[in-house]
User: What shape does this take?
Amino acid sequence: MSSPLRREDVAHVAKLARLTLSEAQLDLFTEQLGQVLEHANDMNALDLADVVPTAHPFGLVNVVRDDDVRPSLDHDKVMAMAPDAQDGRFAVPRILGEAP
Amino acid sequence: MNSAEQIARDVQSGSMSATSVLEMSLDAIRARNDELNVFLYVDEQGALEAASSIDARVARGEHVGPLAGVPVALKDNLCQDGIPTTCSSRILEGWRPPYNATVVDRLLAAGAVPVGKTNLDEFAMGSSTENSAFGPTRNPLNPSRVPGGSSGGSAAAVAADMTPLALGSDTGGSIRQPAALCGLVGMKPTYGLVSRYGLIAFASSLDQIGPLTKSVTDAAMLLEAIAGHDAMDSTSLPEPAPSLVAHVNDGVAGKRIGLVRELVDGADEDVVASVQRAVEALREAGATIVELSVPEFRLGLSAYYLIAPAEASSNLARFDGVRYGLRVNEGDVTAMMEATRTAGFGEEVKRRIMLGTYALSAGYFDAYYGQALKVRTLTIDAFARAYQQADLLLGATTPSVAFEFGSKTSNPMAMYLSDVFTIPSNLSGEPAISVPFGTGEAGLPTGVQLLGPGRSEAQLFAAARVLEIANG
Amino acid sequence: MTLRDGWEMVVGLEVHTELKTNTKMFCGCANTFGAAPNTNVCPICLGLPGSLPVLNVRAVELAMAIGTALHSTISPSTFHRKNYFYPDMPKDFQISQYDLPINAGGYLDLPDGSRVSIERAHLEEDTGKSTHLGGSGRIHGADRSLVDYNRSGVPLVEIVSGPDIRSAAQARAYVAELRGILIATGASDGRMEEGSMRIDANVSVRKSGEPFGTRCEIKNLNSLRSLQRAIDFEAQRQIDLLDEGGKVRQETRHWDENLGTTSTMRVKEEADDYRYFREPDLVDLIPDQAWQDRVRDALGPMPAERRALLSARLSTPTDALLGAVEVVIDLGLDGYVNGAIDADVAPELAIARAANELAAGIDTLHNLTLASFVTTLSMEQSGDLSATQAKTVLLELLGNGGDPKDIAAAKGFERLASGAVGDIVATLIDANPDEWTRYREGDEKLAQFFIGQVMAQTKGQANGKEVIAELQARR
Assistant: This one.
């Protein structure tokens, strides 16, 4: 049974998600994800052109807070979590590209 | 272990000390935790301090709170300040949050005693707790079987009499299904009733925190203590906690209960039989039963398995080795992030991240994620129509009793199908409760599910109580 | 800079401005510049697991104020997640607005009369800041980087113009005018050197009448000068390339201020897949008419209106004076100037002192009251103070505050006895016969020589105009 997903698509998605998959995993995921997406075909058969998508079930709107300063976290507590730190900042290995 | 209701009364009156209750809890944990792998972390010292402080306040004549001295187990995707919180994942191994989830603060304010953090399917993705990076949890009723998931540890804690109360989280059934498999009461409240601040997110528009208990009254007490508006959660409902305990014995006389065939079809015979007996029990208590069909529920599984992974793929992006948790060093930051996530996430988590990323990616968004959000609307509308004909709905919670380890792990779809009855309520954001009712294969408990419109928790508890009494 | 052979440049600008709120966009951490690293952070702006965003109402109001000032339609809006991995992004997604921004459409009229359309102005959160170690301090060649999340979560409004700009000078004028508006609405402090405003320029070229060419994006320009230079360079680069038969590659480029060139940052071979979807942790924003009206009513006049009002008070609006008016409005000094004119100070004098002396002391402007400004200028106007003396008094007021009359007295600034200037001029003429002869014969430059001598002798108390009158009388 051929999957609606191609192996190249899965490899590309893995890069987007910052995951390294082995060859075996690529094959397995191509098949398994394909099964889930096949199952989704029952949805795609429907004509839902006039249906408004729901992202939030109870229609809350305009939830805001006042512009009042609240205490920040203790600096030492924050840096204690860091895998690597220097000069009170989080250290990371070199960044190859500029931000998008 | 007594009920929470009993313990709170005894501790507040001074007839029992919180410390002695805690000792019983710790004894029960020591007795079976190695065997069952329920708790990933037990905070003996913190719990003792809390219990002692409560006893001191009682001695001074203070009113402590509705959950005075009651031990509580917390699913390990709930942040507790200074306490290891892992989501059962290697990527968070050793991480201690610098803050409390709102529900933890509310438990403490109610006088409860958090005892430790329980095992779950990694990042709440699963229905058996077999996806934990730290080993599965065993069902206390039958240790060769799963306790359900993803809140398997919390369910086991209560089922094994380690604590009378536990908090779990439910995104597609993760409170209700373990409740059914372990013979417990488990509720997913209305979306927004309980603050999600401090709940490590899986699928933001579906996640809710809720109670796992032995009795309906205990569940109502626990939910009342944690519910109500929270300014730290923009999706939290505006009103304060509703009154729930006071309505537990309201009964169901005059209520219309809709038996939904799509919430029963496909379940094992023993489960179906329990649902039918539940129908009788509700009828005897004065409810009218209406038979309903809601075909839109069948689409729910597909929609859920696109919406939930999509949101999860984004929620889990922050685990990149930069600020906390696991880091696997590499020469550049992109390689480091990739190596960290590859080493830190288990296979099911990776599978769902992949599925979710794909469903959101350019060119596929409309066909998958976009379409799923429309199916969500269909589900909500379908529920609304059903509630024109019935006050509450009834069905099975999950297709079978507790299954054996490894019986569903080879085929993800098979595992996903066990959520088919619970998912519709997550999609609509409406509340649902699983109540133990009857027994099935191998003498294991079966659960039945009651569903209600938004904010109908009081009616759900009342109907659940009727079944609880009938179940003996 | 005109382009050759019928070439035309097409420029669109994206301006990101940090909002002047007390707290960040989604949490209560302080929104300040220059704090010690990672001290203004909390679970939310660090994106810790379990954290949730809650929207800052002041950020919304400032966004609405900006939209009102730009003639946008304030619309119901949602927030979206823009998903990508980068170490300065704590959640590895940015909460922004996508297809339903708070402000849609609009326009900005420039002083030269041209109009630039606005496509949208939306809300989003800022990222943390990285510093790069090793190498030149830029990313390329660095060994490792250090990240500070104080800036993470600071509220931003991104203003996107239409591709209506046709010259680098016009681009500069657009940003200058926009900056004035952002300051006037209270949304921004306009400190580009501190990073409060950052500009991305989309530049393409075409022959007049042809369809739009391929565009390149120049990112993170943070001064008016570099904006103008970068756009001119990039347009020329593209023209040279096309004239040689080459093709412009769609890419992101970086402007090097020292080299004066743009260079490739990233080639957009695969369009970035940000996987936008609606932010499930936030709810829709639907500002009702009453709220929009409150924001509109609270807005003061914008720079264009204030320039017009002040210019109308000039009897002879020379180019130099109009230029000074622009400086006055740009620096927000029109309150002083209008107050002085209302108190019968000559507009030209008020504008000159504001555009020069007050501008120089802008950092301590709060030391100077309107009353002190008016008193000083009135004293100058009536002759009680010379120009030089008035400037000295203003300097003192800006530095230390105080009362102008007291300051004048303390410095011994007295009106010179009448006739004193004439006597001194006479003495100087006798003492400097050569210079006097040349002046008499028409060398006007020597007037300055005599004025300078008079000033030295009177310690600046003399009135320059009076000296000239004396010189001319004795010619």
About this structure: The two ends of chain C are 48 Å apart (CA to CA). DSSP finds 15 helices and 16 strands in chain C. Chain C touches chain A through 60 residues (CB under 8 Å).
